[in-house]
Amino acid sequence: MQNPGAQENTALQSRPPPEELNYGATAARVRQGPSVPVSRQGPAKRDYLIAAVLCYANLINFMDWFIVPGILLDIQKYFKLHDGDTGLLQTVFILCYMLAAPIFGYLGDRYNRRIILGAGIFFWSGVTLGSSFISESYYWIFFLSRGLVGIGTASYSTVAPTIIADLFEEGKRTTMLSIFYIFIPVGSGLGYVLAAGMAEVTGDWHWAFRVTPCMGGLALVLLILLVPHRTQRRTAAHRALSISGTVRVAAEEPGVQRTAKTTWCQDVISLARNWSFVWSSLGLTAMAFVTGALGMWVPLFLYRAQVVQGIVSPCSQESCNSSNSLIFGGITIGTGILGVITGAEVARRLRKINSKADPLICATSMFISALCLYTALMVAQTNILSTFIFIAFGELFLSVNWAVVTDILLYVVTPRRQSTAIALQILVSHLLGDAGSPYLIGIISSAIQDKNAHSFLWSFWSMQYSFIVCAFVGVFGGGFFLLTSFYIEEDRKEAERL
User: Coil, strand, or helix at residue 25?
Assistant: First the structure.
């Protein structure tokens, strides 16, 4: 079934060669024939419905990511885990996620994307539901289940953005990707709220893992009903020419030469030579490092700060107070929506006057975020309200970058390699970012506690000192985005030629 978002291609007098329908192939070198005017048509209503389904599934995706941090104190007590072991929970999830991403990137460039999406949603929803029935004596199965959920979500994150990119032209694409990526912080925040709310209402944290599988079932049904069996992948030339309203039809003459299909290794080598892709991916890695550490540990850090200040008493109940998770979840939702919208709008306006606007926006926001997070850590022992405020600003400026970074990838990488590029970006950003940051923060915290007297004050200080690493990583991330600005103009022109 043809993708409704590519209806303008029906005016062509000849079908594009098979190579153009294969993301794993290089662009066909053909002689250009006469120009055929094509009327500019906006996206069909069905395209918006498909995008809405993908956004809904993205919401569930990130809710599943952050259910564990939302009830981290309960899980830590239930399985009797130290800080280092607790941080390993998220690390196992991210490791499996990032290792599976290149596999699904390869499949997404070559096979039916709707089947890949549906299988991923079904798999991760089933595993999440099953993890809610694990007893305290089988903690290793709980760790394993988080890893399996990571594999399921990898199938979604690598493929869904490429479908949106094919449904909409450049102007609309930025807007729709912004909406899609708004659901990263919204889903993350709702994960905290759902986990804390279900634990408080039912008195049993296991129920937090029984809501998103039902939501996943609905997403699977909508995916089957609305997303076409085949979604046409448009090349960069088709996208650019459809905007101008003219398409040049390739003359089907004997002797026309086309380049051979490239292998996955050749695609990777090409991406490694794309410096805009490399530096922006390292910038995203720094973002992932910071967000992964914050997402895992901030509610527990705030709880320890409140204990030191005497605001709350140490938790000795079976179900601990989850107010910090609820507040942090609300902050994540609010700052995420505002940050993504602001980043997309600022980028849209500044691109008109500066072609390097996108990486410069990302660099500036990373520097400001690092400063806000460092300030939040320094005031946590004396003023919990100021801590919440500076954490909110830190998250706000991190969220500015989500849609902008993805848009950079989509216009500096030829469409035939976009799923592979996204998969590699996921692999690198998680391998060096949030796969290790929760575990690293936990290990540093445990090491500091082991060398000092066991007290609530040192429990707080150990996490405060370990969190300082995040502020420095944020500064490095800003530097990587600055380096991106040196290459972005040339790489964008190169992608448009392919």
Answer: strand
The amino acid present at 303, given as its one-letter code, is: Y
Q: Please enumerate in sequence order all residues whose Cβ is within 8 A of that of 443, keeping only pairs 6 or more positions apart, or say none.
A: 83, 84, 87
Let me know if 218 is exposed, middle or buried by CB neighbors in 10 A (0-12, 13-18, 19+).
middle
Q: For residue 32, list its beta bridge partners.
A: 250
- Lookup: tokens for 24: 């794993």
Q: How many whole angstroms separate alpha carbon 235 and alpha carbon 30? A: 14
Collapsed DSSP state (helix, strand, coil) of residue 261: strand
pLDDT, tens only, 269-316? 889 899 999 999 999 999 999 988 988 888 889 888 888 888 877 766
Contact at 8 Å (CB) between 26 and 260?
Answer: yes
- What digits encode the pLDDT tens for the residues 137-181? 788 888 898 888 888 888 887 788 878 877 877 667 777 877 887
DSSP letters for 136-170:
GGGHHHHHHHHHHHHHHHHHHHTTHHHHHHHHS-H
Mean pLDDT of the chain: 79
Count CA atoms closer than 13 A to 289's CA, side-chain side: 27
Kindly write down the DSSP assignment for every residue of 223-247, as one continuous string.
Answer: HHHHS-SS-PPPPHHHHHHHHHTEE
Q: Which two tokens stand for residue 207?
A: 């129920």
Q: Is-contact 173 121, C-beta < 8 A? A: no
Question: Residue 381 and residue 307: Cα distance in Å, rounded?
Answer: 10
436 CB neighbour count, 10 Å cutoff: 21
Q: Is residue 494 very low, low, confident or very high in pLDDT (cuts 50, 70, 90)?
A: confident
Spatial distance between the Cα atoms of 33 and 246, rounded to a whole number of angstroms = 12
**Eight-state DSSP code of residue 434:** I
Q: What is the distance between the alpha carbons of residues 239 and 224, in angstroms, rounded to a whole number?
A: 27
Q: C-alpha angle with apex 478: 474 to 484, nearest 5 degrees?
A: 140
Measured between alpha carbons, how far is 267 from 263 in angstroms, rounded to an integer?
Answer: 6
Q: How many CA atoms lie within 13 A of 400 on its CB side?
A: 25
Unique residue bearing structure tokens 């709702």: 190
Distance CA 147, CA 359 (A): 33
DSSP SS3 for 37: strand
Does residue 250 sit in helix, strand or coil?
strand
Checking if the pLDDT of 40 tops 60, the result is: no
For every residue of 338-379, DSSP letters joined together read HHHHHHHHHHHHHTTT-TTHHHHHHHHHHHHHHHHHHHHHHH
Please state, in angstroms and as integers, the Cα–Cα distance from residue 79 to each residue in 85, 140, 212, 422, following that order: 10, 10, 22, 35
SS (H, E, C) 93-134: HHHHHHHHHHHHHHHHHHCCHHHHHHHHHHHHHHHHHHHCCC
